[in-house]
Amino acid sequence: MYSLVILAGGLSQRLGSAYKPLVRLKNKALIRLVVENLEELFTEVIIVVKSEKQKNLLKPILKDKNVIFTLDSSIFENGPLVAMYTGALKAQYSKLFIIASDYPFIESNLALKLLEKLSEYEAAIPMWPNGYIEPLVGSYRREPLVNYSYKALMKGLRRAREPLNYMKTCYVNVYELTPIPEIVFHNINTIEDLVKAEKFYDMFFRREFT
Question: Which whole number is the average pLDDT over 105-110?
């Protein structure tokens, strides 16, 4: 059994300070796309937010979904690592898949490939040929993630990749996970990203690519 942790606390200055989980792609909120793409694989779905206000904004969109909301740990400043730590603390199961809410094309088959690596590793993270990694689309063992995230946060380190410096990590080439990583790992930070995602959407969900 696996836990899904969705990081949903982020605003985007480059999207006009929009609350990213509510940004709509083909008239569907990003947060709902992420849940629908992945929920079949997971026993629990945890959504990490920064405030009650964010929680209340998301609840109506997901009212028919079996999700658990939790608020970022108040003892640390905001950041992706705080959200990862908070979600891992809340999770019931030892194997987690963590994803930010602005990746609308990640599906359960890719998540499962990364989760299966946890039989030998403490984390499994997609890596591009140029060495760039995707720590916000990764699988993690709960206990080491909690421990090493806490240690990093206590040192004032807040980057999502910090715990990986101490965890036994498998870096998986993105092309081993999907033949179309440029689409699958497309995330949305700007208006241009959103426009591109609109073009990708029909290709991806209708499988109109080679």
Answer: 97
Q: Which fold has domain 2-205?
A: Spore Coat Polysaccharide Biosynthesis Protein SpsA; Chain A (3.90.550)
Secondary structure (H, E, C), 78-133 = CCHHHHHHHHHHHCCCCEEEEEECCCCCCCHHHHHHHHHHHHCCCEEEEECCCCCE
Check: CB of residue 148 under 8 Å from CB of residue 163. Answer: yes
pTM of the model: 0.94
CB-based contacts of 159-164 (< 8 A; 24+ apart in sequence)? 159/79, 159/80, 159/81, 160/80, 160/81, 160/84, 160/135, 160/136, 161/133, 161/135, 162/81, 163/81, 163/84, 163/123, 164/123, 164/125, 164/133, 164/135
List the domain boundaries for the chain: 2-205
The per-residue pLDDT for 78 is 80
pLDDT digits (tens, 9 = 90+) for 22-63: 999 999 999 999 999 999 999 999 999 999 999 999 999 999
Helix and strand totals (H; E) in the chain: 8, 11
Tell me phi and psi for residue 53, to 5 degrees. Answer: -60, -45
Percent of the chain with pLDDT over 90: 86
